[in-house]
Amino acid sequence: MKTFTIPLAVLASLCNCKALSSHVCRPSTSTRETLLYEHNPVDDSRRSLVVSSLLSAIAISTAPTRTSAADAALPTIGGAKQSARVAEWPGIDSLEPMYELKVSIDALVNGVAEPKNWPFVEKRLDKFFQGGLFSEKNFYFGVGLQYMNDMKYDKSELPSYVILDKETRYAALEETMKSLERLKSTLSSPNASVIKDVIRDNAIASQTALASWFALLPQGDVAAVQQLFQHVQMADTNRDGKLSDNELELLSPLEQELWKKRVKKFG
């Protein structure tokens, strides 16, 4: 029987586990327990292809200041002002891994509120950053950059404004990862117990940074990828992290195609 692996997001579940294991602890439907998922791609070659997008430099330069009239013409996406007009967005399948990351970081903010969770969070953050170029951190950074590279800007848009738009999105991704790294460093400090506020601030900073990246996306796409994520979780009835053929059929025909594309791209 063919299966479609679900590479659940960044960090392993806290969910009152006494120790982390290679299995993902799933959320209880009766609680709002904080969960952090672990990405586990089936095919590391696919992961390598995604991470390779990190090697494609995004040109950053100083862009001229827009006039007020030009600013007024720009669309507001998700409550945030774009720097350039986008004519075509990548598909939902290309966005889904980033939504997994968002879910994980949202949960992380709640998770670090309880000091008893800190050892588990620290251990998973250590794993998240291990592996050099092929770390989990670079996988998600690479997915975000690939999504940005696949955006098609309005042909009449000035190149300098396209660069500024890319710069804004890149900075949000970069700050997300830097905040997580600061969180990891703070958790490993021998004085972690007396800097609880700093730990929470670092977690919130990563959440805020990624939220600013999502704020620049069409909110219809964000809603659609949220729904896909939730439906895939419900379809995984045996909680093994994969969708069998029978489980896949629990999704709508459109969601089935989206999920197949997502798995083909990212594992």
Provide an overview of this structure:
The chain is mainly alpha-helical and 267 residues long. It has one domain. The protein has ten helices and six strands; from the N terminus they run E-H-H-E-E-E-H-H-H-E-H-H-H-E-H-H. A two-stranded antiparallel sheet has the order 1-6. A two-stranded antiparallel sheet has the order 2-3. Strands 4-5 form a two-stranded antiparallel sheet. Strand 2 and strand 3 (80-81) form a beta hairpin. The longest helix has 29 residues, at 159-187. It is globular, with a radius of gyration of 19 Å. It starts with a strand and ends with a helix. The model is unreliable at 1-37, 39-43 and 53-70 (pLDDT under 50).
Beta content comes to 5-15%
Query: Cα distance, first to last residue?
Result: 17 Å
Radius of gyration from CA coordinates: 19 Å
Number of helices: 10
**Largest sheet properties:** 2 strands, antiparallel
> In percent, how helical is the residue content?
40-55%
- Seen as an oligomer or otherwise, the chain set is single chain
Count every beta strand, where a strand is a DSSP E run of 2 or more residues: 6
Structural domain tally: 1
Structural class determined from secondary elements: mainly alpha
Overall morphology? globular
The overall pLDDT average reads 77
- The ordered string of helix (H) and strand (E) elements is EHHEEEHHHEHHHEHH
